[in-house]
Amino acid sequence: MGCCPSAEANPEQAAEEVGQQAQPDATQSSSPHGEFTVEKEKIKHVDEPVVDVADELFYKANSLAYDKRYVEAVRAFGESIRLRPKFPKAFYQRGMARLHLHQIDEAWEDFKVALAYNYPLAHLGRAKALLAKNDTNHALGELAKAQKLRPKDSSVFRLRASVYREMGDDDAAEKDEALVALLVEGRDCVVCMDVDRSTRLLPCQHSSMCGPCAKACVKRNNRCPICSGVIVKV
User: Fold this and answer.
1) Above 50 in pLDDT, residue 33?
2) Is the whole-model pTM more than 0.90?
3) CA dihedral (63, 65, 55, 88) positive or negative
4) Are 217 and 209 in contact (CB under 8 A)?
């Protein structure tokens, strides 16, 4: 489906169309680099280990996206979705990664599924997809929906201010920029950008990540995403 406003599919239909596309079998051997290997023992029996593996892949994918390794991030998000088809955060973040790869229509489909599962940030993603296709009017409509659902999200006002600047509406842009200044900024995790920061890294003292992302960062390269200092303790 192309990137254009349309009636939304129900969650089951949308997930079937987008979320359950063929993905590499996680129980089989991984790529030569072994980045996304999921051991058979972890997914062989009951649901709980599958949830753990899905989360692990999700946070690994977020870290890859933060490092601008978008192709690998898309793959990892896909693995996470394969293990947990009703995973709106993974659909949203995969859509954002796909935008960086200029896969606009594929990103739109991911945002559609995330929205079908009542994930409000999907409106922000849809706005960015529409802006990538120069559909400013519908993008502003999506931002209005995002503002209604996330009234304290400075990223919504910041993006809308930039749109107004491009349109030459400086008065509207200044109003949104003033709202951005009033809102508490910098509280979202810099990796997943979805939940509040809840950790502090030592010895650098930077507080920039939620618990799961901090754990994934330690496993990945053990360096602070702000200053690149070695993490001794979280």
Assistant:
1) no
2) no
3) positive
4) yes
